Structures are given as C-alpha cells and as structure tokens.
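Much of our argument rests on the idea that a fold can be written as discrete symbols. Part of our work consisted of pairing the sequence of a single chain with a tokenised description of its backbone. The amino acid sequence and the backbone structure tokens for this protein are reproduced below.
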Amino acid sequence: MIAAPLVWTAKRGTLPAMQTPFYFDDTLVRFGVFAGLFILFAAIEYVWPRRRLVVSKGRRWFTNLGISVTASLLLRLMAALAVPLTAIAAALYAQQKGFGLLNAVDWPDWLKIVIALLVLDLAIWAQHLASHKIPILWRLHQVHHADRDIDVTTAIRFHPIEIGLSMLWKMVVVIGLGASPLAVFLFEVILNGCAMFNHANMDLPRPLDRLLRLAIVTPDMHRVHHSVYRAEHDSNYGFNLSIWDRLFRTYVAQPKDGHVGMRIGLAPYQTSSPTRLGWSLWLPVLGYPAEESRAPRGPADDAAGASDTRR
C-alpha cells in the first residue's frame, strides 16, 4: 500500500505521485509493463502459435500499431484542449472533492481497491456489450473485429474515437464510484495486460486453459468472440474476469468450427482491406451499415449457438 496521500504532479503529467522525494511516474510504469508483456506474448505466439495466420503479419502489425498510435495522439489532443482526460485524473478529482460511493465510507483501503477493481471490470464488460448492441457504437467497434487474424496486436486495434469514448465512460464510472487513483492505476495495468494475453495467438495446454478460464478470460475463450459467426462474436465480452459472461449467460465455451478451422473477422471484410491503415480508420464512415457489417443470423449461427455450451 502507498501510505502517503496521492497528489497531482503537473510536471509529470499523470498520476499518482507520493508526497516524498520519490516520484512515481505511472505513465512510464504502464508503458514498461505494456512493452514487457507485448514482447513476451509476441514471443510465445511465435514459438507456440494456436493458429496459422491468413494475411500478411507485417501489414497487420503496421496497421494495428498505427491505429493505436493514432488513438494515443487523439487522447493527448483531447487532454490539451480540455482537462486531463485520464481515469486517474478523474480518480484524483473525485478524491479531492469527496465524490463517489467509496469516498463516502470508512472502509479499509484494501477492500475499496477490491471493490473498485470488480466494479470497473464489470463496467468495461458492459461497455463492450453496448458496443455490440448499439448500432452507432458497433460502427466503431467493427474496426476491432475486422481483423482477419487475432494476435497480441489485435488487443490494441481499437478505433481512436472508440478509445476516446471508452475513456470518458471510464471517467464517469470512476467519479461515481469514488475509486482511488491507486485502484484505477492497478485496474488499467491489469486490463492492458489481460487484453494482450487473451488476444495472443498462443497455444495454451488444454488443462491449463480449462483451469484459468474459471477465473480469467483465456485466449481460447476470447477467440470465440472474434468468430465470423454472429452467434459467436455476440458472446464472451469479458477482458479480465470470466465471471460476468457466465453470470449474464453470454458465455460460449468453444467455436462451432474449432479453433484451428474457425474464420476470424467479419463476413463482409474477408479481404486484405483490414490490413490497410487508412481503410481501417475510415471504416466506420465508409464501410457497411452497422447491421450489414455483421453476418446475419442464419442456420450456421443457430447451429453455432446450439452446439456451444453456455454457462
């Protein structure tokens, strides 16, 4: 635990810092964790891949990384034009003003952190569900699903506008909940790490997969979510914990066509187009209408839903 109060450090630009001569740069730590895990999972999926890739890895990686960089630049622009648009900044604001449920109760810090981690994870699950159910949000989210392969870079393939909206939603939840800056920092590190893990094209031993998915989302579990079948990509919305999909009956255990034989992506975009950066960024505007971009439900989807185990 950090015993000293967390304070804003404008010089560092992000939070948190301790009221001691030692300054904790959360941006540097998050980037370090991200880079370390990215390299680790990329190496594992290179040595033990689950599936053979179907399109050019070089073009995909250039595009997926390019989308991520564009999203980061958009967030920086938003922050330059307004208040710091980060979830940790929102947590500090709520802490200073006494906003939020957890700031109104005198509970142990560890308990507040656990509650915050659970509530934030549920909030991201709900946001992901909404991005599939609300047409205008799906137009943005389809950029993520258009990727015809799934690997560690798919975890950062989100349209910049979707990233911006996601940050605003996270800030609303953080302020309403009164989550501490430390809890938000831990959640964001865990979220990024888990997203890269469950998008990685790694071949986990089946017994290990069955054990892990009792608590967290595994690569095999999340790969179902990237199936071309609508009945399958409208399932397994979790990024961190697997309990929400089981609780809300959106859990699908395995893809109908198997992990090696299944098709990844969206039916209208089974071409090389999703590997192009410009095409991917303009897809929400120039692509298929929201419903047409999703394979309509048909016999194949009904069979997929019937053959999978829902918990």
Observations:
- Residues 76 and 82 are 10 Å apart (CA to CA).
